[in-house]
Amino acid sequence: MEKVRSTFSQSALVPKRAALWLAFLAPFFYLSYGGANWLASQRAHVPNVAFAWESAIPFLGWTIIPYWSINLFYALCLFINTTPRDVDMLARRYLTIQIIAVACFIAFPLEATFVRPATSGLPGFMFAVLGGFDKPFNQAPSLHIALLVVIWDHLRGRLPRKVRLLWHLWCFLIGASVLTTWQHHVIDIPTGMLLGLFAVWLFPRHAGSPLAAFAMGDDPKSRRLGIYYLCGAVAFLGLAALCTPLSPAALLLLWPAVALAIVAVGYFGAGPRIFQKRVDGRATLASRWLLAPYRLGAFINIRLWTWRMPESVVIADGVHLGRFPRRHEANRFATVIDITGELQRPSGTLARWCSFPTLDLTALDKIQTLAAANLLEAVRQQGPVLVCCALGFQRSAGVIVRWLLISRRCDDAAEALRLIERAGWRVHLPVESLHAVTEGLR
Q: How many whole angstroms separate alpha carbon 131 and alpha carbon 106?
C-alpha cells in the first residue's frame, strides 16, 4: 500500500515538473536557435555541404504537417512520464541536444541552398510561419532529427503495443520531412541522429548517467589506453574536417570519433558503465548504435587474433575457456559467463547469459573476478559453461584461474596457468591481474 501511495504521489508531481521545464526549455530553444541563425546571417560567406544528387529530392508541401508535429510531441512528452525523475531525464536530453547543436551552428554554420516553390493552403501558412523565425542556416547536426531520436525513444516503450507501428511510421514521416520540405541536406540527418543517440546514451532511462561516477583513475595503463583512444578520436575528427570540403560523406567520420572519445572517457575513469551492458549481456539501444564503430573494430580484432584457434577449449569438469562466441557457438553451452563490457550478447542466444562487464586490457577487479568464479562453480553442475572475453587470453582466463584455485583444483596460479596451456589455450595475464585473482588465497 505504501508503495502504491508513493507511486501515486510521484505521478502527481509530474505535471508541475513538466510545466516548469517547458517554461524554461521553450524560450531557451527559440532564443538560442534564433541567436545562432542571426550570427550566421552576419557572416559574409556561409558554406554549404550537400551532395550533387540532392537536387533530385522532391518537394512535398504536405510533409510540413509531420515536420511541424514534432513541436507538439516535444511538449507532450514532458508530461507523459510517471515520476519527476523521468521528466528530468527527458529535459536533460533536450537541453544537451540544444546546447551541442547550437554550439555547432555557431562554430561551423552551414547554409541550405534549396529554393522552395510557392505553396498555398495549410502547408503555405505553415511554411510562412516557419520562415518567420527559421533561416536557411542551422543545418548540421539537424536539431529536428536529434530531437526526433529522443522523442521516438521516449514514447516507443510507453505506447500500447497496438499503436507502436503507427508511431514508428509517423516518426519516419517526421524524419523524411526534413528532406521533402527542403529544410535540410542529407548529411544533416546522420549527424543529427548521432547527437540524439548521444543524448539518450548520456541520460539513460533505467540507470544513472554513465559519467555520473566518473573519477580519474590512477592506473597508468588505463590512462595510456585512454590517451590512445583519444588520439584515435582526434584523428577521425581531423579527417572529417579535412575531407568534408571534398565530400559531405566525410562527416560520417564523426561517428567513430565520438565512439572512440567515449571509450577514452571509460579508460580515464568512467569505467565499463560507458557500454551500458546489463547482466543478461544486452546493451541499451543508444549504446549499441553510438559505439558500433568501436564494437566493429573489436569484432574484427577477435577474428584476426583467433581465426586459427579453436572457439574454446575444455579446462575441467565441463568448464570451457574461449573467445567471445557467435550465436551458434554460444548455444552449445548451458551458461555463458561473459567478462567483456564492449561486446553484446548475440541475438537469438539460448544459453543463460551472465555478464560481468570490464574494460579490455585493464587489471582485473578482484571482487568481480571472485563473483564470476563463484558463479562458475555454482552453474557448472547445470551443464557445460563457457567463460569468455573478447579473445579469451586475459579477462576470462583470470576468472578460470580464480575458479581453479578456490575449487582446489590447483594449488597455485602457476599450476592453473599450466593446466590452461595444456588444454591448448594461450594466456596473457599481466602481473596486476594475477595479483587480483590470487589475492586472499595465500
A: 20
CA-CA distance, 26 to 147, in Å (whole number)?
13
Cα–Cα distance measured from residue 311 to residue 302, given in angstroms and rounded to the nearest whole number: 11
Q: What local confidence, expressed as pLDDT, does residue 7 receive?
A: 52
Strand order in the sheet with 352-355: 312-316, 319-322, 385-388, 335-338, 352-355
The rounded radius of gyration (Å) of the Cα atoms in the chain is: 26
Q: Residue 2 has what pLDDT? A: 52
Q: Is 430 exposed, middle or buried (0-12, 13-18, 19+ CB in 10 A)?
A: middle
CA dihedral 394, 396, 399, 404 (to 10 degrees): -90
Q: Give me the residues paired with residue 388 across strands.
A: 322, 338
Please state, in angstroms and rounded to a whole number, the distance separating the CA atoms of residues 227 and 129: 48
Cell of 270: 568512467
C-beta of residue 321 within 8 angstroms of C-beta of residue 309 = no
Catalytic residue positions?
389
Distance CA 68, CA 254 (A): 28
How far, in Å, are 120, 122, 137, 145, 173 from residue 62 at the CA level? 10, 8, 22, 18, 11
User: CA 45, 46, 51 angle in degrees (round to 5)?
Assistant: 130
Q: Which residue has the cell 510562412?
A: 128
pLDDT band at 114 (very low <50, low <70, confident <90, very high): confident
- 318 within 8 A of 370, measured Cβ to Cβ: no
Residue of 440, 192, 390, 399 lying closest to 272 (CA atoms): 390
Q: Which of the four pLDDT bands, split at 50, 70 and 90, describes residue 4?
A: very low
Q: What is the largest CA-CA distance in the chain?
A: 84
The neighbouring-strand residues paired with 320 are: 314, 386
DSSP secondary structure code for residue 314 in this structure: E
**Buried b / exposed e along 28-47 (16+ C-beta atoms within 10 A):** ebeebbeebbeebeeeeebe
Q: Rounded to an integer, what distance in angstroms lies between the CA atom of residue 361 and that of residue 366?
A: 15
Question: 148: closest CA among 105, 193, 182?
Answer: 193
Least confident of 130-139, 272-281, 384-393, 394-403: 130-139
Name residues whose C-beta falls within 8 Å of residue 188's C-beta, 6 or more positions apart in sequence.
139, 140, 141, 142, 145, 178
State the average pLDDT for the chain: 89
Most confident of 29-33, 101-105, 247-251, 352-356: 352-356
Burial 364-374 (b: 16+ CB within 10 A, else e): bbbebbbebbe
